[in-house]
Amino acid sequence: MRTGFIIGIIAGTFALAVSFASKILFVTPFLPEIGALALFSNVPGELESQAIESLGILAKYSAFGGAILVNLLLFGLLGVIYERASSTIMRGGSLKRFIRYSILIYIFLSAFGFWLSIISSISSNPISISSVLVSTIPVAVSFSLITVVIHSKWEIANSIQTAETTNMETEETTTIRPEDTPPTPIAQPHLQRRLLIRGSLLSASAVGVALLIYGLLPFTSSSPFGESTSTRSNRPITPASDLTGIFKDPRLTEFVNSEITSNKEFYKVQVNIFDPVVDVNKWSLKINGLVDREIEMTYDEILSLPSKEQFTTLECISNEIGGNLIGNALWKGTTLKEVLDRAGVKEDSFYIKFKSFDGYWVGIPLDKAMMESTLLAYQMNGETLSAGHGFPLRAIVPGIYGMMNAKWITEIQLEPAVVVGFWQERGWSNDAQIMTNVIIKKPRSGARFSGPTPLSGVAFAGVRGISKVEVSMDRGETWTEASLKRPLSGYSWVLWALEWIPPSAGVYQIWTRATDSTGTTQIEKTTQPFPNGATGYHKINVRVQGV
Asked: How far is the C-alpha of 374 from the C-alpha of 383, rounded, in Å?
């Protein structure tokens, strides 16, 4: 039983490597990924938020790693079944065993994969019966091949060992000449270890080849697997001659130049383990539902529409106070209104529903959809969207959290009632209005310094804008107003800075708060991101060593 389990693990590793290579090369379903997505799809939003809070982006990859482990354990059990059945239904030559076992494994994996796809309401690609049936073929064949080959060699090694041992026991023991002494047989444990080591090396090599295939793919801005190498955040957006006050301080040059987040550094939060791959030559955008006429537009037709560039900050609703799930970019696209007007919006329309290539969906009110600031974007910081940021088309809707800004859009439906989106079904806010938020960028918590130092950071309140940022060095007893840099747009974050002269050495806790343009100051009480977004002051501890 132990032998069958080990062989099953070895063969399963090889099979998963083949499946991963197939996914990368031919965009087929990958069982561990479907398993992880099934878990995400059925976990309540509150638990998902706690996982992100505890593990960050590792939460998703931990679930993926767990799914791989579960798959390997299943393969190990299949190896045990083969070992037990080798003398019954698996009897016969190696070829017959291979064919029978491949058929049984194929049936099992197809059923398992299809079951996972059913309980997963979102996937890295639309999962159909045909895609599951096709993608399971190389997995079943490779797993069965390695299992049968190793078992066959195992049986041959054991039969040789048995024969040699029998011959030694029956050999005459009298007058044996040295040249007649039979060769010393190889001990059976050595044969076992050698066979398992070779099998393990074979599987490890398959994994290495699969990862090599993934790594050799082109990493360009439009690559479905790569991330942009934009360096926009390292270039000044505002000429130095236009900077005023503290923002001219050389100590803040790097901070000021980071007003735009590079594509590579811009946060990504999505259910998918791997970025969805969209063939733009086959892609189209459909507009239907409560419209005067249904339309379908190709990528080139979208590009031919009147375009608009707009600085907009996006923030994930899972972002904690002081977190980094926020970024600011220059987006280019056409207005959603432009597209909807071409279809003709009926009077009883109330919401629009975005449908994405990966199965994701979310809805926004029609009045937000018709704003001139709501874009269907195809460029980010002057470059074609990468797969991770929604290639070929994504929504940019100022004022609401990132989960409402759908990526990989394939269809837009006009609906008569409120649309409850994917995450909203799991308890997250369907209103998703961005909470006022201040982040201290420099110094970092735990920093040590002496003498005067600039404090700096960003503040964001969605479309409400920021009118004031205040900083306290005495736990809220007194507040000092910081300087604000003029924002790049009415939809982007605001840079703030303040020169601080510590009165004495010691440990200080720095607090920040902001007031939006309506005159509302953010609340001090800290709440967790679930379900409406985090609230509270960002606070850091620093040590002043001398003045």
From this structure: 19
Question: Would you state the pLDDT for residue 172?
Answer: 44
- What is the C-alpha separation between 362 and 421, in angstroms, rounded? 4
CA distance 459 to 440: 9
d(CA 6, CA 4): 6
Largest Cα–Cα separation, the chain: 110
Sequence-separated (6 or more) residues with CB below 8 Å from residue 427 = 44, 45, 46, 530, 531
For the chain, residues classed under CATH 3.90.420.10 are 232-426
Query: Cβ distance 313 to 494 under 8 Å?
Result: no
Which of these, 234, 264, 18, 230, lies nearest to 141 by C-alpha position?
18
Q: Which of 118-127, 138-147, 508-517 has the lowest mean pLDDT?
A: 118-127
Sign of torsion over alpha carbons 82, 83, 84, 90: positive
Contact (Cβ atoms closer than 8 angstroms) between residue 527 and residue 534: yes
Averaged pLDDT of the chain: 86
Q: Is 486 exposed, middle or buried (0-12, 13-18, 19+ CB in 10 A)?
A: exposed
> What is the SS3 assignment for 273?
coil
The helix or strand, by DSSP H or E, that contains position 330, with its residue range, turns out to be strand 326-335
Question: Which secondary structure element, helix H or strand E, spans residue 48, and what is its range?
Answer: helix 45-55
Q: How far apart are CA 381 and CA 73, in angstroms?
A: 45
Q: How far is CA 530 from CA 79, 201, 231, 320, in A?
A: 43, 46, 33, 10
**DSSP letter (8 states) at residue 179:** G
C-alpha 361: how far from chain center:
17
CB 364 within 8 A of CB 351: yes
Topology given in CATH for the domain delimited by 232-426: Sulfite Oxidase; Chain A, domain 2 (3.90.420)
Closest CA to 204 of 64, 16, 410: 16
Structure-token pair, residue 251: 């100590």
Nearest to 60, CA basis, from 221, 271, 322: 271
Residue 118 to residue 128: CA distance in whole angstroms: 10
What is the pairing mode between strands 448-450 and 538-546? Answer: parallel
Between the CA of residue 285 and those of 34, 221, 300, 306, 326, what are the distances in Å? 26, 21, 11, 16, 28
Peptide bond into 531 cis (omega under 30): yes
Amino acid at 450: S
Question: 3-state DSSP call for residue 205?
Answer: helix
- Portions of the chain given CATH number 2.60.40.650: 437-546
Q: How close are the terminal C-alpha atoms of the chain, in Å?
A: 71
Q: Which two tokens stand for residue 445?
A: 């918590």
Please answer whether residues 434 and 531 qualify as being in contact, where contact means their C-beta atoms are separated by less than 8 angstroms: no
Topology of domain 437-546 in CATH is: Immunoglobulin-like (2.60.40)
Instruction: Give the containing element (helix H, strand E) for 364.
Output: strand 361-365
> How do residues 342-352 score in pLDDT, each as one tens digit?
999 999 999 99
**How many whole angstroms separate alpha carbon 364 and alpha carbon 405?**
9
Tell me, what's the pLDDT at 410?
A: 97
